[in-house]
Amino acid sequence: MIRSEDPARLGRELRGRYSAADLGVLTPGELRRFAPHGNGDPRADITLAWELLYRLEPELYDRLVSAERLHPGVLGWLPRHADTIVEVGAGAGRLTLELIGRGREVVAIEPAMPLRQILARKLGAADHGDRARVVPGFFDALPVASDSADLVVACSALTPAPGHGGEAGLSEMERVCRPGGRVAIVWPNNLGWLAAHGYEYVCFAGPMAAEFASPQEAVELARIFYPGAAEQVRRRGQRRVPYEVLGINPPRDVAFKLAGP
Ligand SMILES: C[S@@+](CC[C@H](N)C(=O)[O-])C[C@H]1O[C@@H](n2cnc3c(N)ncnc32)[C@H](O)[C@@H]1O
Questions:
Q1: Rounded to a whole number, what is the distance in angstroms from the first to the last CA of the chain?
Q2: Does the beta carbon of 156 lie inside 6 Å of ligand 1?
């Protein structure tokens, strides 16, 4: 999970959930990207802890993102009709499920096998789900032809770090985008870096809250993912929790670049 705020405040519980002994779940390609120096420690590296979550407890992760829905303005801003859409780091499909009715073909690229399985299951149950293909892959080597997609999009996945995209990932997304198309980074985490690469920015206003399945679910997930807010979430006793309480920026913005004709 990519968060824009002080990482020290977030995910402390998650960091303690796994240890270096769990790194065996990563494939060689994943280890090379997520623990490049060969001595990765999820207790010290929160990003690595998130990668282990995706593989060891994918359903727990899916419960979290099911609560963190995208702002309707973001969904309205994305093209309604496209020939080919490529999504990178599709995860359990928070955005993919919104895209399948919009493209003749949707290619959902996701490295974590357990998340691909959840996404394939959801697509199987969805209208138009047969338009989507779920494939393994990484930002820095997208398994898609150049100039092939009208929309190339990533949601809460791309960062400037090489293992999570970086310069190579951004140029791969632009390679895949056909002239006249757009590259969109939804819920971006590093606006300065994207602006320096010519990306514009749009942000949608209005109050936003995470919508957990129940007040109990809100407390349980806050204790793991938002430990600094857990006590307040418990006292509120509500399943809807404003992002101000959780202490993160809401999923309400997009950085984008239009590919010239
Ligand atoms: C926070 S999750 C977001 C998932 C989904 N886009 C969503 O919004 O729910 C980040 C996703 O990026 C994927 N990811 C991490 N590193 C990646 C890489 N180098 N290339 C492609 N995807 C990557 C993870 O496996 C995970 O599914």
A1: 34
A2: yes
Q: What single-letter DSSP state applies at residue 141?
A: B
| CA 90 to centroid of ligand 1, rounded, Å | 6
Atom of ligand 1 nearest to the CA of 186: 8
Distance 251 CA to ligand 1 centre (A): 15
The pLDDT assigned to 10 comes to 54
pLDDT value of position 127: 86
Per-residue buried b or exposed e for 13-25, using 16+ beta carbons within 10 Å of the residue's own CB: ebbebbeeebbeb
- Cα–ligand 1 centroid distance for 159 (angstroms): 10
User: In terms of Cα–Cα distance, which of 150, 28, 26 is closest to 87?
Assistant: 150
Question: How far, CA to CA in Å, does 84 sit from each of 58, 110, 126, 148, 205?
Answer: 28, 17, 18, 7, 29
Backbone angles phi, psi at 54, to 5 degrees: -55, -30
* Residue 2 CB–ligand 1 contact under 6 Å: yes
* List of residues 6+ apart from 217 with CB closer than 8 A: 63, 67, 239
At 207 the three-state DSSP class reads coil
Tens of pLDDT along 167-222? 999 999 999 999 999 999 999 999 999 999 999 999 999 999 999 999 999 999 99
**Residue 105 phi, psi (nearest 5):** -140, 130
Q: Which atom of ligand 1 is nearest to the CA of 1?
A: 1
Total-model pTM: 0.95
pLDDT score at 13: 75
CA distance 254 to 77: 9
Measured by CA distance, the residue closest to atom 23 of ligand 1 is 89
